[in-house]
């Protein structure tokens, strides 16, 4: 089956004109056959839509519902939605009929009053799957924040699940479900044409998700103490993700044709810090990149603001001994003193709070291979959509 849109627009109708108008808004829709008043001809025209759709019919009378859903299956429904409270023969007949076509079965459970306990929801889920559901849908009324946690927590245990809360308090779960593993979420054509309580409108949901994606479309920056692995991990992660790698120290060396040590020696730390700030400012405009920073980048406030606001900032964290051990034999200008361990400890102490303040993600790297660190980065920044 081709990839479906994540937003299933539930068409409220009720007449043909309204249905047709709402249908224009999305590539994936739910046709609520119980909500419309259509002529036979209009119904057939609707069911023949080239859009992807779920056919749902909540008319009590099982004979009428079966006739309508079978028609939808024949005319191109991608899914039919059947309530778990229907008789077994109803579910079996439709499962058998849909399997003859390219149509999947959603078995749905609704509770318009409350969200049952996790164990009860799991047993309903199991029952739906044992009836042959391709997707099990759980929609329950949310009366408290913990109800949202119950619903969203099911995603870590159940596959092929679409679970979300109804009502105002449950609204956020309709969005969050996409980030937990739901294949799609239901939206309405507008705030006045919802088919269930708490639905976002299609445009509202798209705007929120596009804002979240934009927020995630920032370069990744790696910060942390000298020798912790920023350059090595950054380079490896960029190669693996096929995105650009920029190392601020290397960038400065390229631009000045001078080594970092030599800049420190001839022009001093302040001069180096200004070059570092300018370079950071320039390179953070590239969204698809990994930027490895120098260990002291967070000492300037202007840099901290950039890292925090314009990048997804990852602190590679380890103790000073680990870091020094990694750079043994390599010169770092700030550590060319009589007692490098003491100097490094003092530097670390003065910087630790800044690393913490600026970073959005912290990774303890001690004892982890470069590949393991890259895997963790991938998991932590993974974009759901
Ligand atoms: N997780 C790791 N496992 C094994 N070796 C590592 C790991 N991380 C870094 N190294 C090694 O440690 C050394 C220092 O790493 P790297 O130069 O990437 O640190 P850095 O954080 O960029 O330091 P600086 O702030 O001084 O630029 C390198 O030789 C690198 O190969
Ligand atoms: O910790 C620091 O202040 C530094 C770290 C290195 O990456 C270089 O940027 C330079 O040695 C300064
Ligand atoms: Mg480095």
From TrEMBL:
Mg(2+) binds at residue 231. GO terms for cellular component: cytoplasm. The keyword Ion transport does not apply. GO terms for biological process: 3,4-dihydroxybenzoate biosynthetic process; amino acid biosynthetic process; aromatic amino acid family biosynthetic process; chorismate biosynthetic process. One of its GO terms (molecular function) is 3-dehydroquinate dehydratase activity. Its EC number is 4.2.1.10, 2.7.1.71. The active site is at residues 110, 137. Transmembrane segments: none annotated. Homodimer. Belongs to the shikimate kinase family. This is Multifunctional fusion protein. It comes from Putridiphycobacter roseus. The gene is aroK.
């Amino acid at each position: 089956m081709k990839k479906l849109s994540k937003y299933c627009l539930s068409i409220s109708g009720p007449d043909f004109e309204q249905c047709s108008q709402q249908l224009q808004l999305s590539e994936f829709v739910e046709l609520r056959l119980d909500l419309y008043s259509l002529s036979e001809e209009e119904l057939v025209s609707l069911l023949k839509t080239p859009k992807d759709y779920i056919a749902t019919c909540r008319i009590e009378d099982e004979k009428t519902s079966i006739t309508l859903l079978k028609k939808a299956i024949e005319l191109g429904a991608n899914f039919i939605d059947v309530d778990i409270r229907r008789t077994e023969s109803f579910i079996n007949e439709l499962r058998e009929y849909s399997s003859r076509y390219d149509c999947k079965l959603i078995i749905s459970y609704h509770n318009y009053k409350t969200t049952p306990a996790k164990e009860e929801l799991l047993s309903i889920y199991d029952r739906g799957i044992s009836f042959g559901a391709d997707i099990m849908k759980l929609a329950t009324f949310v009366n408290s924040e913990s109800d949202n946690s119950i619903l969203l927590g099911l995603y870590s245990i159940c596959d092929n699940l679409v679970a979300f809360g109804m009502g105002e308090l449950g609204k956020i779960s309709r969005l969050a479900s996409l980030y937990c593993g739901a294949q799609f979420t239901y939206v309405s054509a507008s705030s006045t044409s919802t088919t269930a309580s708490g639905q976002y409108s299609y445009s509202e949901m798209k705007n929120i998700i596009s804002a979240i994606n934009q927020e995630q479309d920032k370069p990744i920056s790696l910060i942390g103490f000298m020798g912790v692995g920023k350059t090595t991990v950054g380079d490896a992660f960029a190669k693996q993700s096929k995105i650009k790698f920029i190392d601020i120290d290397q960038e400065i060396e390229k631009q000045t044709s001078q080594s970092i040590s030599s800049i420190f020696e001839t022009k001093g730390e302040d001069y180096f810090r200004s070059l570092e700030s300018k370079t950071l400012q320039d390179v953070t405009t590239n969204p698809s990149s990994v930027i490895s920073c120098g260990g002291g980048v967070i000492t300037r406030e202007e840099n901290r603001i950039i890292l925090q606001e314009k990048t997804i900032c990852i602190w590679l964290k380890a103790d000073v001994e680990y870091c020094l051990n990694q750079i043994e034999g390599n010169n770092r200008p700030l550590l060319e003193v009589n007692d490098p361990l003491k100097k490094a400890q003092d530097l670390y102490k003065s910087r630790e709070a800044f690393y913490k303040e600026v970073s959005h993600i912290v990774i303890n790297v001690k004892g982890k291979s470069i590949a393991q660190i890259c895997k963790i980065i991938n998991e932590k920044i993974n974009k759901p959509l």
